[in-house]
């Protein structure tokens, strides 16, 4: 029978999504939860897994098309041999999925899952065929094989499931000490890994499928990829990601106008459209004020230089931004007005007793602000790791929608572009945002003499309805105090 899959609500009531790339074509045989497409919402690129096991009968949109939620996305022919695989029960509460810290996906908060009474819910006692034909009301990776084993790759167009023998090419490409003489199960789904690990593999020319085959049941880590790359030259393995999976926005950033073309017109949609609306709302709702402070951060840069030589911190990249983030968390505890928001509808100022720290990241798709949740609980090393993970995921366009909501204060690092200062616009719903300028070697008064010192400028924009000038100055002074003398962090709480 033919089943039509409609584009679901991908989170937060977003009305539409753009097709970035199709990962299947008409006539392809797919399995339950196989990734079939990548779509871009106003928040992130999201992977769409198949809700059916069967054959793709038709794709109702092309790459680049904008599809409304509830419109037909793809048709499947289900039933027969292909649909008789054991159908697992979809986990209740499975939400919208985007690729995040875990390779298998991150479940968005607040999204209703499949449950009793929900459209497409699987009734108790339903047969396997009925369970596979039940249309889920949201996208998720809740359906895991009930046997606990990973699925094996199905030959294109074939109707049977079989493991692939390790042929000569696979043996030569795999690490020499882990090549098996028996059959090798190549996972149908993309190997579990984080976005930075996948980017590393792509840069090194390493196929994650082969790395995953050497570590069955494990998430592929940076160490696995580096070990593999050290054993095999990059030229021997071609990355398995097809060119069609490169998001259009990524290629657009390097596109050149045609000869004689005087203007280029780019549709306003996706992240750019969402960011523009948010900035207009913020600029014309909250009365912005900005204050600046230039300071000597030589003690911080010397500390960071010493940390780089600490073997215990190998694999951790701790930079000025991480120290600023830690200083911000400490300073917010002393000036909670900066960690609050103005609720116009309720007529209240809501003060947060936790810090969900937004880190602005410039990507090919536009500016996104993923959030480090409960940042005040993290030690410096953990905070640095969290920031690096978020930045890597954002640049890959894989930040889940849920990871860009709920921020209470934000940081934007304009220094990476060689900029000294600016007047950042508040994220809607936040009372403060801190811009961190470039660290420059500058003649500076030090202990009564002029010396070359590492200097940067901090720019704090704040909502003047919530924060007065004295509070903003106190907060900025507390942040600067930690950067001038990192040891002062031991005195703050």
Give an overview of the whole structure.
- This protein is of the alpha+beta class and 493 residues long.
- It folds into three domains: 1-157, Beta Barrel (OB fold (Dihydrolipoamide Acetyltransferase, E2P)); 163-245, no CATH class; 271-491, Chloramphenicol Acetyltransferase.
- The protein has eleven helices and 21 strands.
- The protein has helices at residues 128-133, 168-173, 195-204, 208-214, 222-231, 248-252, 270-283, 298-308, 320-334, 380-395, 469-484; strands at residues 2-6, 16-22, 29-30, 35-40, 45-49, 54-59, 66-68, 72-77, 97-98, 106-107, 288-296, 340-343, 348-351, 357-359, 361-363, 366-368, 371-372, 409-413, 432-436, 440-446, 449-463.
- Strands 11, 14, 17, 18, 19, 20 and 21 form a seven-stranded mixed β-sheet that branches. A four-stranded antiparallel β-sheet has the order 1-8-6-3, with no helix packed on it. A four-stranded antiparallel β-sheet has the order 5-4-2-7, with no helix packed on it.
- Strand 15 (361-363) and strand 16 form a beta hairpin.
- The model is unreliable at 81-188 and 234-254 (pLDDT under 50).
Secondary structure elements and pairings:
Blueprint: E1 2-6, E2 16-22, E3 29-30, E4 35-40, E5 45-49, E6 54-59, E7 66-68, E8 72-77, E9 97-98, E10 106-107, H1 128-133, H2 168-173, H3 195-204, H4 208-214, H5 222-231, H6 248-252, H7 270-283, E11 288-296, H8 298-308, H9 320-334, E12 340-343, E13 348-351, E14 357-359, E15 361-363, E16 366-368, E17 371-372, H10 380-395, E18 409-413, E19 432-436, E20 440-446, E21 449-463, H11 469-484
Parallel strand pairs: 14-18, 18-19
Antiparallel strand pairs: 1-8, 2-4, 2-7, 3-6, 4-5, 6-8, 9-10, 11-21, 12-13, 14-17, 15-16, 19-21, 20-21
